[in-house]
Amino acid sequence: MIDLLRLRVSYFRQDRILDQLFSRKRVLLEVIEKLYSRQRAKRPPSLFNELEKLYNDKGPSSVELNDACNDLRLRLRRDTEVIFHMRQRSFAAVFGPGTSFQNRLLVYLLFKCGGFFPTDIAIPKIVAQHSIADDCIVIRHGTYREEQFQKVLSGNLVQQFNRRVKSGRTLSLTDVPQWAGGYFGFPGSSRQARQLPDVQKKTWRKEYLPSPTNLVASALCSGIAGLLVESHPKDHRLRVTVHRAIVIHGQELLQQACEYQGLLLEGERAAGRTFPADNATIGVAYKCRRIVRSKKRVTNLSLRQTMQKLRLNDASSEMRRDVGFVLAIPLLEAGPLYTAPSPVAGVIYVDSNAPDYYIDDARMAAVVSIAQRFLESLAAPPVEQLGHIRNFPLSELMVSNKRAIQLPESAKRTLELAPVLPPFTNVPFQLNYDVSEFVPTRGTPEAK
């Protein structure tokens, strides 16, 4: 079925196709979830018959299923035709247990699109009737899973594997990630990672960062940096970046969404790094949902001591000894709905090592204005205007609002909450722009 889908669907991506077809079809999704649950029973009903009933129904879910079929039809490749050979006489029998629900659902849609011709005629007859060349025949013989494991395992491992196979216990893997966010990039356990040198902590804990998201974030930060550089000493460092809120394995994280912009005295490749959402200055802004900055004329030493209390070094290198100013501005989702788990889409971060540098309320308001226009421009246009770029959902929408926290006592000596209100959007928003092979023709419910 995977070969069939790859041969007939252009730019087929197994990790994206479901979102591309069904993300805005919420009524249909609820029905499909029920079908999936029934298929997990010991004696599941015919999936083909259930899908046929749904397809021919006249309700909202049927309309959305037909829309998904039409969307897939637009994606059919023009350079291939496929004859799908079956061992069964009935095409409905292909949809029995033993194949993933996702593949069966997609093949059903492809069938309704006229994307292939199923037949049980013997392969030599098919080849003769259609004059098919040898290099155009794809035959699956099976993956021989047990043999492959026995080739790569040795000693006690292969013995344990053989015993498990004979016991009849399943060899299926869970679809739930078994690692925490930012797990990769260092050897050993998370506890041991805290002892690693700062040189490694400058580049570790990276997760996938879509290049369109990186580009959008860079545009925002370069605009803010352009405003701040005007009044900043040119021989001192000024850094501006933005961290987007993401969730990995239930863990709230802030991921650096672009390289630093501003006055950089050294080459730093930091985009993609992740930080726990309650650490350091960005963590305080994320939890307080207020603009957080260091106080006027705070000493570099006291600022570093505060960062230690806020566990900066758990996931990042220690703050440089010459840094004397930090600023964190949350990007809020202020509407009744927001993307889980918190109504904060991201946090802008600024720091400087210029002596006595400070961003006052007036300059702060100008920075917030740039960020406000940024949010409004991305939240306002219908999705079809973005062409092949889409803001893919990272998590579900929530209604109940968790309370913001107060500024931690450990930070009050050096940090303060600015009176300027943070930038916000009244619709659910996230920073997860990526390339999509689908070009939507209808706006999302949120955009409408």
Number of helices: 15
Strand content: 5-15%
- Percent range for helical residues? 25-40%
- Gyration radius over CA: 27 Å
Largest sheet: 9 strands, mixed
Could you state the order of secondary-structure elements as H and E? HHHHHEHEHHHHHHEEEEHEHEEEHEEEEE
**Mean of all residue-level pLDDT scores:** 87
Low-confidence stretches: 442-448
- Taking the alpha carbons of the first and last residues, their distance comes to 36 Å
Helix/strand/pairing class, anyone?
Answer: alpha+beta
Shape: elongated
The beta-strand count equals 15
Secondary structure blueprint with pairings:
Elements: H1 2-8, H2 17-22, H3 26-39, H4 47-56, H5 60-73, E1 83-85, H6 101-112, E2 117-119, H7 123-130, H8 145-152, H9 155-167, H10 190-193, H11 198-201, H12 211-229, E3 238-248, E4 251-256, E5 261-263, E6 274-276, H13 280-288, E7 292-294, H14 300-309, E8 325-333, E9 338-339, E10 344-352, H15 361-379, E11 389-391, E12 397-398, E13 415-417, E14 424-425, E15 433-435
Parallel strand pairs: 1-2, 8-14
Antiparallel strand pairs: 3-4, 3-5, 3-10, 4-6, 7-8, 7-13, 8-10, 9-12, 11-15
Helix pairs in contact: 1-6, 3-5, 12-15
